[in-house]
Design brief:
This protein is of the alpha+beta class. The protein folds into 3 domains: 1-61, Nucleic acid-binding proteins (OB fold (Dihydrolipoamide Acetyltransferase, E2P)); 63-135, DNA polymerase, domain 1; 139-187. The protein has 7 helices and 5 strands. It has a 5-stranded mixed beta barrel with strand order 1-2-3-5-4.
């Protein structure tokens, strides 16, 4: 099974992405197709599903999005169309934040997702969390925690600093570390 491909975006036609790999062009179903730029060199993470005797091939910009999609499919009542709709609804970070905080209001405008689906979704991901973090905590946040702990900061200090800036939704590792350092240094 193909897990990832590196190539070039040659056409975007929502929800499809046409992807060139040397002399072969693939068509994938993608979420948030507007995020892709023509002639952009990128790596896509692939997931193939057989549903009602048809083959569907999904591609994701990041491995964590692919993993999230697979987890959505494990939830009773959520099939490929609903999972695709959920992931196309907002950015990955916003979805994770809404799920981690069990924010029902966030999903109210999403047609086709019933209240029972939402309850199952929240329950599924809450089972996945470990003692210190919610399920799909961004790898960027994890990397920032590791970097700051190597600089000698205590985990408790790092957690407190992150809580203060979490609402900023910083998605760049360098910016996140610098912002957290500012908070940490102001508290000393």
């Amino acid at each position: 099974m193909i897990y990832a491909l590196k190539g070039q975006v040659v056409r975007v036609s929502d929800p499809y992405l046409y992807f060139s790999l040397k002399s072969v062009i693939f068509r994938f179903i993608v979420v948030r197709s507007k995020e892709y730029k023509l002639n952009e060199e990128t790596t896509l993470f692939i997931y193939k599903v057989f549903y009602n005797e048809k083959e569907y091939v999904f591609a994701f910009k990041e491995e964590k999005e692919r993993h999230f999609f697979v987890e959505l499919l494990k939830i009773n009542g959520i099939g490929i169309k609903t999972a695709h709709k959920i992931m196309s609804y907002a950015t990955f970070f916003d979805l994770v934040t809404a799920i981690n905080s069990e924010n029902h209001a966030f999903f109210t405008k999403l047609k086709g997702v019933r209240k029972t689906n939402l309850e199952d979704l929240f329950r599924h991901f809450n089972k996945k969390q470990n003692k210190h973090q919610k399920l799909v905590n961004s790898p960027i946040v994890e990397d920032a925690f590791i970097a700051l702990s190597k600089l000698g900061y205590l985990k408790s200090e790092i957690k407190e600093a992150y809580k203060k800036i979490e609402s900023l939704k910083i998605e760049d590792l360098e910016e996140l570390i610098l912002t957290m350092l500012e908070v940490l240094n102001n508290e000393r």
